[in-house]
Amino acid sequence: MNILITNAHSVRNAGDAVLLEITLRELIDVFPNASITVAINDPNAYVPYGKETAVSSFIDWFKSGTGKQGDWKIGPLLLAPYWLGQAIFAALFFRWTGRPFYLMLRREHRRLLRAYFQADLIVSCPGNFFLSGSGVGVPLFLAIFSLAYGWLAGKPLYMMQQSVGPFRRWIDQVLVSWLLKRLRIVFLRDTRSLETLKSIGFTHPKCFVVPDAALIYRGSGNVYRLLKLLQERQAISRPFVGVTVIDFGAQNRFFHRQPDYEHALTCALSHFIKQHGGTVFLFPQVCGPSQAEDDRIPSRRVAQTLRESGICTIQIDEPWSSDELQAAYGQMDLFIGTRLHSNIFALTAGTPVLAIAYYYKTHGVMQMLGLSDWTIDIAAVDSETLTGLLEKLWSHRQEIHLHLAAKLPEVQQQARSVARLIREDWSQQPSP
């Protein structure tokens, strides 16, 4: 049998890389003889985890991924009605005749359509791409189209754990609701997403809230790169405070508090280190593909300010694998994360986390873990509040360790149920 995974973004994002790795692993466990194809937005950076193959996604047809915000390809955008029109015709022709027909599409386009037509089922990768961005909505439209195209070709559709929303346009709500109603099962990873869907009138007989797929990720525990880093430095002391920073102002034109957010981070970290000693580690959770997505850019600014204040600071500029990041986060005494999956990596490694939420997906996941008290919204963060929360986290670190040891096995077991439920549902379909 053949499986197509859609809406995979980029392995330069450690969280996305783990979500895809878990998706592949879980599907292979329940479909051991399946041939899997991944439609990914950043195919040039992709290295297969196993025997799966990768093809360019619909988004990659029109967006380079590089540049400040992932530059759109002007020529292909102008051809979008023609290319997508041909793709729609090809899907309808396949659905009516059972035969592929590609017209004049490019070779890489035909490879993608062939993956749809050959698939026995289509699974959307976990994540948070069904939301309104700060632009005109092209990425959301293409994310919707990527899954809706499978429905157009007559394929059974599934969605792994997903955050849905926020929405700021009525048309976005309508399109996402229309799409999700055509899925055989809808898996959400937080109750906030469920509340959003209910608020726009969405109902589905098989809509479930299941913990984030990354919660079941366990790397090898390889701390070699961290140990090498420590050996190269002098006068490094504990406690170790791990940090991930996001350039949310570059990603969202409605967010104007980037300097305030970075200032709050530097103040809280400076106060903590001056009170308790120790070292700050700034980690590269996401290294692209666009400059706006690259966490190293704001991390350099924060690191410079901390060093100017006399704070022992290590800013890691080279890309690290998900395995290396999770292992390093597990060696931290505390963690302040803005990237959702950096927080999940740290929590699953047993490290207490103070989460800064740039979308409500972070609130939802932390709530599911019983850690809402350790979450602050990026729009409300300030120096005094963040400093106080970090001190409070330090004083409660032992009870958080105990809470994680008790809570994580429960949510991990729930997260592992998704692929099995997909398998059971797909097996109940009538034979074609």
Automatic annotation (TrEMBL):
Pfam families linked to this entry: PS_pyruv_trans
InterPro entries: Polysacch_pyruvyl_Trfase
Transmembrane segments: 74-94, 137-154
Domain of life: Bacteria
Ranges where the Polysaccharide pyruvyl transferase domain occurs: 13-358
Keywords tagged on the record: Membrane, Transferase, Transmembrane, Transmembrane helix
MF GO annotations: transferase activity
Protein name: Polysaccharide pyruvyl transferase family protein
